Amino acid sequence: MPINTTVTGPELAWQEKALCAQTGPEFFFPDPGSSTRDAKRLCGVCEERVACLQYALANDERFGVWGGLSEKERLSLRRTEH
């Protein structure tokens, strides 16, 4: 029997409503050196952006665009918070 890796719960309900759920993951996890501009633009109009960013920071997401911020931007934000 395969292991169910789907994480659900009220704290992750934002993921179902987020605009990124309607696009492919490659959009938010571009190849190194590729532009994150389009992903950030989509995040900018997403109603779930704040919840997404909070999730990424709380779970130390190190790759991709989360809540409109790149890996480097999230790292910089973490440094300024401490």
From TrEMBL:
Membrane-spanning residues: none
A cellular-component GO term for this protein: cytoplasm
One Gene Ontology biological process: cell redox homeostasis
Function: Acts as a transcriptional regulator. Probably redox-responsive. The apo- but not holo-form probably binds DNA.
Binding residues annotated for [4Fe-4S] cluster, in chain numbering: C20, C43, C46, C52
Organism: Streptomyces beijiangensis
Keywords noted in UniProt: 4Fe-4S, Cytoplasm, Disulfide bond, DNA-binding, Iron, Iron-sulfur, Metal-binding, Transcription, Transcription regulation
The name this protein goes by in its record: Transcriptional regulator WhiB
Family note: Belongs to the WhiB family.
Cofactor(s) required for function per UniProt: [4Fe-4S] cluster
Highest taxon above the source species: Bacteria
Residues annotated as domain 4Fe-4S Wbl-type: 19-76
